[in-house]
Design a protein that fits this description.
The protein is of the alpha/beta class. The protein has 14 helices and 15 strands.
């Protein structure tokens, strides 16, 4: 069930120093000169949303792009405009080589409560194959800076598996190194590398991931992260109890959120409590800034979600989590020779994916009764 008191704000920061080979996000490497104007436009958009009745946020997520390219003062400009609920979670995605002690202390002073480091791998040749700029020294330094700034148990490590040239032994090295970080991460996200159209990765078929290799690596991640005290709560996410990413949970539970910045998405449940609307902003930062300054709408397009669409989406999202779905969503599952291997009864009336089921979640989703 959706907690109607929860409300999220997502702030998109579209600047990077280099675009990774697998990235298809709305990011640019040649427009950082727009940073201050963009920050000011984001703060203005927030203030206008508040004037229209946007309530206090229970979570805020600065994503990108590379949000950690922003100075503490720039981040604070946006964050100060957002009304925060008591105990709000405020997350900033960081590249390890873009942070230092003063910056992370400044983020903490500005109100940030959680960091998410884009580590991806702890093996140099795998990092190079993904097109990442940082090295292992930057990772260890970033964790030291985070601890010194007070983020001892409030940081996430993002990982990607399945890159060209990455062996199972390489992936095990990454997992072992991450779980031995001091302080250890309270949350780890591990994503299978995907091929997005238009990226350098898509154009080089020799670098495309192998699904069987990725399945082996997923199971290894589940084993080693579990051994380190992290439990899976969504297919690609593991955490210690109480350290789940509340902002992402809001997405998975069809909560309401406001997207700030270029290409940012928003979701609002309509007054009937049944239907909803999703919309997104224009894609480029310069157009976004121009529209905000001209007091014009930043929306590029949107879609209306009727009861059936919302129910379908709700079940597909819930299936990916440790909450699972009701048995009614998979009628006759106990007598289906395929499903009986892919789901299990977690509690009366609820079904969750087995480990094998997590590998075949899309196949299970096709069998959901909407």
């Amino acid at each position: 069930m959706v907690d109607e008191d929860r409300f999220g704000v997502y702030v998109h920061v579209p600047f990077c120093t280099r675009r990774c080979d697998y990235c298809a996000f709305a990011t640019w490497t040649d427009r950082f000169h727009l940073a201050q104007a963009y920050v000011d436009a984001c703060a203005t958009e927030v203030k206008r949303a508040v004037a229209r009745g946007m309530g206090p946020a229970t979570s805020v997520f600065f994503g990108g792009g590379t949000p950690s390219l922003l100075t503490p003062q720039q981040l604070e400009t946006v964050l100060d405009a957002i009304p925060l609920g008591r105990g709000a979670e405020v997350t900033v995605e960081c590249n390890p080589d873009t942070v230092d002690g003063p910056k992370l202390c400044g983020y903490r002073d500005a109100g940030v409560t959680r960091l998410s480091f884009g580590v991806q791998s702890m093996v140099p040749h795998v990092l190079a194959g993904l097109g990442r700029e940082h090295d292992l020294g930057a990772v260890y330094s970033a964790i030291d800076y985070a601890a010194a700034a007070g983020f001892h148990d409030a940081y996430n490590v993002d990982l990607i598996f399945g890159g060209a040239g990455e062996t199972v032994a390489d992936w095990e090295t990454t997992l072992a190194a991450v779980t031995r970080l001091d302080p250890s991460p309270a949350h780890v996200s591990a994503y299978a590398l995907t091929v997005e159209p238009g990226t350098p990765l898509a154009r080089d078929r020799n670098r495309h991931p192998d699904p069987d290799d990725q399945a082996d690596k997923y199971l290894l991640a589940d084993d080693l992260l579990g051994d380190s005290g992290l439990s899976w709560y969504e297919i690609s996410n593991w955490s210690r109890p109480g350290h789940e990413c509340r902002h992402n949970q809001l997405y998975w539970e069809q909560g309401q959120y406001c997207g700030i910045g270029c290409a940012a998405h928003s979701h609002r449940v309509n007054s009937d409590g049944v239907t909803a609307r999703r919309w997104w902003n224009v894609r480029t930062p310069e157009r976004y800034v121009r529209l905000v300054e001209a007091v014009e709408a930043t929306e590029a397009a949107g879609e209306d979600l009727d009861l059936d669409a919302r129910r379908r989406e709700r079940l597909e999202l819930a299936l990916r989590t440790d909450r699972g779905v009701s048995e009614e969503a998979l009628p006759g599952w106990a007598h289906d020779p395929v499903l009986v291997e892919l789901v299990r009864r977690a509690e009366p009336g609820r079904l969750v994916l087995t480990r094998r089921g997590r590998l075949l979640a899309n196949e299970v989703a096709l069998r959901l009764s909407y």
